[in-house]
Amino acid sequence: IVPFMNPLALISAFLAIGTLLLAVYILHLDPKNLAHRLFFVMMILYTCWEFIFIGMQSTGDKQVFVLLYKLSTPALVFIPMTLHIIMLMVKMPRKIMAPILAPIYAAYVFFLYQNFNLNLINRDFARVDGYWHFVRTDPGFVTVLYMTVYGLIILLCIALIVNWHLKTGLTREKKQAR
Q: Is the pLDDT of residue 4 over 50?
């Protein structure tokens, strides 16, 4: 099968190329800025995930699909990296960032292990009409923990951005927060 016969694979190819260009552009702006470097790494992970997704959607073999799905597992780290970048953008002191980020990154190492070995979120995959469908796992303790940590990260990101918007007096930063 030609990979681009599947429209999802074609969309993923365009997204991967666009994401890669954005990553290089942001890093080029200021390579010494930690937020830019983290964004670059996050976008590289996302680009890898998109290219792996092209292979996932292009294969008809379930074993190959599952292998590619497991290889895409490291891309999950973009979620705590988003929080890390936002904390850097709002200029949160390291003394506050470290105790928040350390357990979150540690939890994500555990989630990566779980997803690679036990399929944390999906328990099975089925190909229907040329497209792969994900069969969700029953919400066990680890899955509920993952969703809770994920939800807390999202809420914390939103709270930090809203607080930044309300506290800053600079028009440029208000626009960035918006």
A: no
